[in-house]
Amino acid sequence: MSFPWAKHYEPKQPLMRWLDEKLPLPRLVYNAVGAGYPVPRNLNYFWNFGVLAGAALGIQIITGIVLAMHYAANAGVAFGSVESIMRDVNAGWFLRYAHANGASMFLLVVYIHISRGLYYGSYKAPREMVWLLGVVIFLLMMATAFMGYVLPWGQMSFWGAQVITGFFSAIPLVGETIRVWLLGGYAPDNAALNRFFSLHYLLPFVTAGVIILHIWALHIPGSNNPTGVDVKGEQDTVPFHPYYTAKDAVGLGVFFLVFALLLFFSPNLLGHPDNYIEANPLSTPAHIVPEWYFLPFYAILKSFTADFILPAKLWGVLAMFGSILLLFFLPWLDSSPVRSANFRPKYRTFLIVLLVDVLVLGYVGGAEANARNVMLGQLATAYYFAHFLIILPWVSRSERPRPLPGSITEAVLTKHGGTSPAKTALASN
Amino acid sequence: MVRAISTLIGFAFVGVLAIALFFTAKDAIQNPAPETAEHEFHLHPKDARLQSAGYFGTFDRQQVQRGFQVYKEVCAACHSLKYVSFRDLEEIGYSEAEVKAIATQWVIEQPSVNPETGEAATRKNVPSDRFPSPFANEVAARAANNNALPPDLSLMTKARHDGSNYVYSLVGPDAYRPQPAELLKKFPDAKTPNGLHYNPYFANLNIAMPPPLTADGQVTYADGTKATREQMARDVSAFLTWTAEPKLEKRHAAGFASVIFIAIFCFLAWGAYQNVWRDVKH
């Protein structure tokens, strides 16, 4: 589906016409990311991050496939095989650093992409399915990233695997049995490493499949925009190509610039030194910490320190998984018909607090577990859940949104005319 | 319905966290965390000022070679270097013939089998060999070192926070020192156990390794540099920075080319963007 004014694919060349009759693949591309997809004209740079995430996945798949040609998934030699990639494989250091930092870049752009969705209400009707598929992609990414971090078989790989798989033992009665079954042993070892490698290779392709669904679902209602107002007519949109392909190219350039600085000049900045020590089941590191992108969730896990009906550990595990699963219910927790936080003053304030709150959780997740940090984490975790489960349902009913602009075009023109959209909207009411 | 359930779940989590917070606070007040000697007396590494540090970092080959000499004459008695091959030494400026000589003359020989009897034997090293371990296995290493295991040094400068500076500080002239009187006064239980050595740059302050660099001139440098303890510590740090990250120079060079290329791409993309959008207000 698309807007009625969307351009139609009309192949002129005989070969392209022939291809279009047999297999309309160019038509599919044309309608998906070409001139056949009308997009609101007022998108800001936050709308680059979907494309950036796609590029990051592409980089991960390409570097990952080549790395897999040199890597050996065996607990006895995995660490050494990574070192041989770093030292003896042609451009191996580049591939490995690109893959390791590529994961960080991927998660970084996805976090910004999610924050964009939260701020501009992209999860709301009619785009609920886009959001739900997005959460599925996020879960797949987290599983993939976790298993990938285990593969170099360093100390953090091993002990991270030990901690994460330990979550399953929090399940009452059958937990320990499930954990042993998942690991293929009592502790992470060869069996676990091999299945992690297998799944680490599989899941990115599953992710790519869900991304296709994500984009498909997006193309039914079309893209949201910073005002959150629906597209009313042709003047509100521009064709994706060349307008947004050109804008995405700028974003991609900046993305690659940041990526290159990280990869070439501080490739180990986001890693942990302990992962350059080979896994040793007999020596526990002083501080076991996950990669930076899991720190907020790790902080949530660690915040539940008191038994209350359920054991503290089970509360922690429930909360950690719950903190992501609740995103599936977000479109129904927030019942406000207004999408963009620009017109929802109260929601906007609470959302900014939430984003800061997640950064605080990230800090706590990586910091020493002293009383001050634990308490800070407990407060931040409480706000995280309160925001989504208590504040949001209440705010969405009680707040009075600011008046919306009549249309995207009106918002764009008044911005250039020097009056705020709010004033124009007030005047026209 | 969704909202009623969600509010309920929300209050459940917040309630449990409130209880947890209460007990954490109570515990913090009743049993404040004891101060530890490590916390108070541990020192951050000093800056080794290596040429490899920073965005423009390269290896000072003379220095890395001197560091190799320190490794060979001091560290190699106990520490392996198992991810580095003799042939890699060509990267720090040794010629093929020199590398061959270094390999052949290396004191520890490469484990092998007697080609006639099939019994365990050793043979001379060749350039394609990795550096042989000074001990046959972990048990032998521990037996010879008061039950401590000398770690492999190949990745040492990447396996510790601020690794190059850490190695420099840990073996530098001011590292090994008598335990400070204030420490013993404040933490009488923290006396360095027999067989360990007080070293404030080591994470738990007490290291099993005896002072490795004990006197100026311990190593006689081939290039005539005066081998002060300071100089040897700095040089061995430079060498271990190279063993941990041998592709550092290539990486920096590729980085500059990439950043310039991408910056030009950004500039062109920005121009294309301005051009495409020139008639559309947005």
UniProtKB/TrEMBL annotation, chain A:
Where does this protein hold a ubiquinone? H219
| UniProt: heme b b562 binding residues | H99, H200
TM ranges: 45-73, 93-114, 130-151, 157-175, 196-217, 249-271, 315-333, 345-364, 376-395
State the GO CC annotations: respiratory chain complex III
Q: How does it sit in the membrane?
A: Multi-pass membrane protein
Tell me which residues bind heme b b566. H113, H214
Major site of localization recorded for this protein: membrane
* Compartments it resides in: Membrane
The chain positions of domain Cytochrome b/b6 N-terminal region profile read: 15-227
Task: Give the InterPro entries listed for this entry.
Answer: Cyt_b/b6_C (IPR005798), Cyt_b/b6_C_sf (IPR036150), Cyt_b/b6_N (IPR005797), Cytb/b6-like_sf (IPR027387), Cytochrome_b (IPR030689), Cytochrome_b_N_euk/bac (IPR048259), Di-haem_cyt_TM (IPR016174)
Query: What protein is this chain from?
Result: Cytochrome b
TrEMBL record, chain B:
Q: Which InterPro entries match?
A: Cyt_c-like_dom, Cyt_c-like_dom_sf, Cyt_c1
**Can you list the GO cellular component terms from the UniProt entry?**
membrane
Instruction: Tell me where it mainly resides.
Output: membrane
Q: Where on this chain does heme c bind?
A: C75, C78, H79, M209
Q: Which Pfam families match?
A: Cytochrom_C1
Report TM segments. Answer: 253-273
This chain's protein is named Cytochrome c1
